[in-house]
Specification:
There is one protein chain. The protein is an alpha+beta fold and 111 residues long. It is built from four helices and two strands. The protein has helices spanning 8-20, 26-37, 43-56, 82-100; strands spanning 59-66, 74-80. Strands 1-2 form a two-stranded antiparallel ribbon. The N and C termini lie far apart (35 Å).
Amino acid sequence: MKGTNLGEFEEVVLLTIASLMDEAYSVNIVDEIEKVTGRATKLGVVHAVLRRLEDKGYISSDLGEPTRERGGRRKRFFKISHAGKVSLLKAREQRDQLWSTIPDVVFEGLI
C-alpha cells in the first residue's frame, strides 16, 4: 500500500493544484498553501512533493511560454490527473467515514 495513499502534505498540494487550475505553478502553489493554511511552506519541499505526485501519476506538468518577467525562463504548470482526482475523492471518503464514527460527545462544548 505504501506509495498509493496520500500523505497529509501531498493532499494539501494536490488540493491546491486542483483549486488553482490553469495557474498551478510552484510559486503560486506555495503562496496559496500559505494563504489558506497559515503555514510557512518552503519551495523546495513543494518541489519534492510535486515530483512524488508526478511519479505516482496524480499530476502531470507542462512548460509554459517564456516570459520577460522571468528573464525568458518558462514556468512549469501542474495539472491534476484522473488518478489524482480519484485519490482525492478516496481520501475525502475515508476522512468523512472516520468523522461519521466520532460520537458527538467528543466535541461537546466546542461546536
